[in-house]
Write a structure and sequence with these properties.
- InterPro entries: Osmotin/thaumatin-like_sf, Thaumatin.
- This is Thaumatin-like protein.
- The chain has one domain: Thaumatin (Sandwich).
- Helices cover 12% and strands 32% of the residues.
- It has 4 helices and 13 strands.
- Strand 10 and strand 11 form a beta hairpin.
- Bound molecules: 2-acetamido-2-deoxy-beta-D-glucopyranose.
- 2-acetamido-2-deoxy-beta-D-glucopyranose binds next to loops.
């Protein structure tokens, strides 16, 4: 799902700006260093766009609601020649901060609209642009569901979707949309309609392993979650 900034939300942003702030904790449970990044949607206040997490380290970020944006992570990064680049999830900014640039797919995305309709936060894990690392999202609000994509989809990724690093290891698994850029996989053109664009044999590989995550653009029914605005969130990579 692409984040949609509705005109009403834009107005609400102007009206309620600064009314509430959610605390996001981003944790690295991977056995290696990672570099999470964020992208803020149009009309939302920017937050820290990139940072480094050693294994088991975590970082908290205050996010003013209403806010729309995404979290993802990069790994196998280096700063050779003073230019920061990553084998997986790179945002091509040349720095640890992504500065508004999104990650180059395939990348697992955690998407938020904080302070949305009916006093709710909306969130999901999206594999619409493919997968690069497992991730989970835990709201601290009462009766709010944790969303998890814990499977390592890189192992068992079909060869036509695989992205390999310089060591030959699989560092990401493209969605069929990213790999083939065809309307029936991207739900574009004649397929830009939920009644026409259906799961594919490729999207089903992702859905089988991560049933709570978006596996294609119109996977809303089983992949969008809500929590009353005011919750704080824990994002864990390699949960
Ligand atoms: C998916 O289906 C296409 C044709 O519909 C076929 O070419 C491809 O091999 C299938 N891939 C997998 C992984 O099942």
């Amino acid at each position: 799902m692409e984040i949609k900034i509705l005109p009403s939300l834009l107005l609400a942003t102007i009206y309620f700006y600064g009314a509430h702030s959610a605390v996001f904790t981003v944790k690295n449970n991977c056995g290696f260093e990672i570099w999470p990044g964020t992208v803020t949607g149009a009309g939302s206040a920017p937050v820290l766009t990139g940072f480094d997490l050693a294994p088991q380290a975590s970082k908290t970020i205050n996010v003013p609601a209403p806010w729309s944006g995404r979290f993802f992570t990069r790994y196998q990064c280096s700063n050779a020649g003073n230019k920061f680049t990553c084998v997986s999830g790179d945002c091509a900014s040349g720095q640890i901060e992504c500065n508004g640039a999104g990650a180059i797919p395939p990348v697992s995305l955690v998407e938020f609209t904080l302070g949305g309709a009916n006093g709710q936060d909306f969130f999901d894990i999206s594999l619409v642009d493919g997968f690069n690392l497992p991730v989970s999202l835990k709201p601290d609000g009462a009766n709010c569901q944790t969303v998890t994509c814990a499977a390592n989809i890189n192992s068992g990724c079909p060869s036509e979707l695989v992205v390999k690093g310089p060591n030959g290891d699989v560092v990401g698994c493209k969605s069929a949309c990213v790999a083939f850029n065809e309307p029936q996989y991207c739900c574009s053109g004649a397929f830009a309609d939920p009644s026409v664009c259906k799961p594919s044999n490729y999207s089903e590989i992702f859905k089988r392993q991560c049933p709570q995550a978006y596996s294609y653009a119109f996977d809303d029914k089983t992949s969008t979650f809500t929590c009353p605005t005011g919750a704080n969130y824990l994002i864990t990579f390699c949960p």
